Amino acid sequence: MPDCGHCLQETNPYTYTSGHWLHRDREQRDARYIGFDFDQLRKKVIGLYRNANKVTSCHKHEGGFNRVFVFTLDHTQRVVARLPTHVAGPPELTTNSEVATIEYLQSNTAVPIPKILDWSDDRSNPIGSEYIIMEHAKGVQLHQRWPTMDSVQKIQCIKAIGMKIQQIAALNFPAYGSLYSATVKVKFPLNIPLTPGFCIGPCCKTRPNRGPWSDLQAYCDGLVDTGISRIPPQGTSPRTSSELITTHIDLLSYCRQILHKLASDARVIAAAAPTLHHADLNKRNIFVLDDDPTVIADIIDWQSSSIEPAFEYADETPDFAALPEPELLDAEFSDAARDHQPNDETAELCHAAYETCLQGMVPKIAGARHVDKNLLRPFRYSHRTWVDGAVVLRQELNETAARWNELGLPSPCPYPIPTAEALSDHQQEYKDLLAAHKLKRQIMEVLDIPSDGWVPSEAWAATKEMYKQVFETSVHAVNNKDEDDDDLDEEKLRKMWPYDIPNDV
Predict the structure, then answer these.
(1) In whole angstroms, what is the distance from residue 54 CA to residue 265 CA?
(2) Which pLDDT does position 142 carry in this prediction?
(3) pTM (two decimals)
(4) First CA to last CA across the chain, in angstroms?
(5) How many secondary structure helices (H) and strands (E) does the chain include?
(6) Peptide bond before 114: cis, by omega within 30 degrees of 0?
(7) What is the pLDDT, as a whole number, of residue 2?
(8) Strand order in the sheet with 116-120
(9) Which residues of the chain have pLDDT under 50?
């Protein structure tokens, strides 16, 4: 989600004002409300500098998980204060871990990160919120310079980023979890000592079984336990029927057995070295020198960065190395949507440069990229069955089971091959899922929005109108298609529609 700056004379610091969502808009914005004492935050910032007397300007920036205030003091110093919203992650752990991760990297690498001036994970402090106050990043955001950079500069910049990734990935860890300061009393029963002053503690992401995990088998249990925890109580919504809940629990039970088998395989173990990586390494979190954008000046936003198996990062491609997406738009959608498709002539060069950097500089992640995907995909979907749907995990288990012997895994396979009838039913469900994903991608392309349906405030009115037209066009198309076409009708279209029906937005 893009950052959107606002002068505090024009908006208030407590509510979310940068955008809206096409799905559960009110709920999304309410979840990002932060009740705190802005005056106390201002006083805290001023008090960090002896020669500062007042704030001369302050701008609010908002992301999906944090509210950021950029203060300019009367001696021209710029300071950044970040407050996590309620959707940022577990209280205390999220702030503690981000601070420790930054300080650990500053102590053990040359990766440039703004200095932390003050922080608190205690909401009962005078400010009334957790916070991190930092020096402002040097340089300018890479996304601001990227359009004006030539292909040679972009490739050199990617190489420079690769060298930073190399330093981080080269760090060795004895377990999976999140970094914490050994001197901070965090409320968790287990931690694994690291270098002096640091330890590995529970994962700062939202899991009930947060670890830390000393081996891959225990990490697998954490994934499955997360999947189970996301299944709501029976009867709390139309989706929570007893039959559906049983389906998810049974699948996750099989998945636990599959993961334990896979976690014993030498190929998976080799690709599972505990690895620290930036959780959101994109152009907005990378700062470069304005007069030389091939030099990395700072990297920001280390929130939720954790130590995971290397294969968890194997399929991630940052936006500066992304290839243009294949054309997915059908004729009934506006041709204007095609204008949103990336048309960067250097995209393939940038992608190749990033791949070369990983191959030559980051062997932990590069090696994991060459492991057979059927050995790794069950790890990626096991904790998301209630979010993605049971059909996604079932598809992965079906494919893994079908290739079990071919993959050289020890018999017997814990997951039974489905009957012909069950497989036919699943294939229809999977076909519908793919159709729903295609529909969502089409809507994203037409409206030029991210997958969560976020729209900047200044584009909200126009986007809502276009969204209504997209829905009406889709309904008209399915109601007037030839009988020999697919079985998509209006009822099924409404069920698979990825965002709120336009009248509800």
Answers:
(1) 61
(2) 98
(3) 0.91
(4) 19
(5) 16, 16
(6) no
(7) 38
(8) 6-7, 55-62, 66-73, 78-84, 131-135, 116-120
(9) 1-7, 328-332, 334, 336-342
